[in-house]
Description:
By secondary structure, the chain is mostly helical. The chain has 15 helices and 3 strands. It has helices at residues 2-5, 10-25, 36-51, 59-65, 73-91, 93-104, 116-126, 152-169, 185-193, 197-207, 214-220, 237-243, 248-252, 255-264, 280-289; strands at residues 130-131, 136-138, 144-146.
Amino acid sequence: SRLSRLRRPPQNKAMLIQCAVWPATFYGVEALALSKQEVHSLRTSASRALFGPTRATCPFLALHAVGTGLWDPEVYLLVSALRTLRRAFHQAPAMAESILQLACQPPANTRDITGPAAALRSMLTRNDWVLHTDGSLHGPGHHSLNVRVSSAKEISCQVNAAWAHTVHNHMVHRNGLAHCPMPNGPATARALGRLKGMNQACVARHIAGAFASPAAKGRWLPDVARQCQYCGHLATKTHRILHCPRFEAVRLRYTGALRKVTANYPHWIHAAYIGRSPEEEMLRLMLRARCMPPVPVLPQANPSDTELRLYTDGSCCFPRIPEA
């Protein structure tokens, strides 16, 4: 509640949650498995700290796409458990091996979750990750890692990228988002970071779906009129942005942008986030099935040669995007 009252930009609040609130909240819980209800309660509290107690906000999208580096509490718990296991393989391999083998076994009693192995197994199962005895992990969207050899950064990147599938599953029931693309949280947060002050706060609320139209408010607030106060039509977001004659003069200044939005990004009317490419998942599956060729034996270079040529693939159109 104190954080929600602070007059700070949303991304500044997101940094405080990630760097101060989550470490204090989840200190020493590697051997515990919080229930889905407990995690969602923390998720909702963090969303309210960012935007206040707005009923229309999507907590999953708010924590995934608004803050640079902000993790959902479920992601934070899973990444912490996997990093702890990875660290154990370097410090105490025998103990880490026993935890890994126990985590791969089916639970004897799903209600009895005691110890780091059972807690890790519970979190992996409910997030659709499959752990194998060799340390490899396969998750949603064909994301994969290995707790024995993957770096801490790679673990966090893979878990966060796979979490986008869970966020998408909790968005498609919302009005206007039935056919929305999967959100690209890091790209959306970077774009939002270019805005400052009230512009960032306003756009961040729109990304998280925190703005409720009068048509939506009228469903749970009987004293709110669902009709547009200017023309009498149903006051939905689509009507206000695209059709209401009261704002025709404003729309004329952005005709090209609105035409592009309605043609290519219709979900922006309800949640203006950057989506992932629909081909990304298939490309990841194809690349995972391929193996690196053996390193060829190169002839020794002539000492008299003063020029060395390296042939690389320069076909990537977006070199700053790891998924590309």
